[in-house]
Amino acid sequence: MFEILMQTSAGATPGIMQAAWDFLQKGGIFMIPLGVTSVVGVAAIVYKFLSLSPQRVIPAALEKQLANFHELAQNDREVPVTKEVEKGGSALARLAASAIKHRGKPQGDIANAVESAARMEVARLQSGIGVLDIVITVAPLLGLLGTASGLVTIFQGLSDAADHLAIARGIAEALNTTIFGLAIAVPCVIAHGYFTRRIELLTVRLESLLADLIDACRGDSING
Question: 3-class SS at 104?
């Protein structure tokens, strides 16, 4: 039974590849920019998944340490945490480093320093979203261009004493490019919405953590 399944799978794979290749060929010249657009979209999605991973934004271990920073500082056990944030391995670490660097100053001064660093981190979190915006806009437009090109081919076939081959080729080009353009845009729209929401949630968590850290780092808190 297992051997039969393996043989069926092996036979189906070339068939699927051939069908995909035929689909791309029938789409005409506009399949080339659409293919490039799809690669860019996939690369942007993979990049955002990696860049928004917990380890790169809010590592759980560091989050727990910073939540207890005031207690650690009172017991003179904050040095390991300070060294960890100085490495800058995550967005939380870089922002915490900015707060700890100004430790002992008035709360307003620390907050201003953290806000300046936060603008840079928000820009980092948003990086790649613009690429998805472009793909979402460009992919359907390229599909429409392919549709228009296919319609031109269809009309040419109709004018040349009903060239059925040209008509079939035009229909395939019009439909395939439209399908491919939408197939690229739809996953990118879903990914764009997911990443935008995730960035909002991460930003709120960072604000909450840093508010507590700023309070722990202010001058009168240390003296107290």
Answer: coil
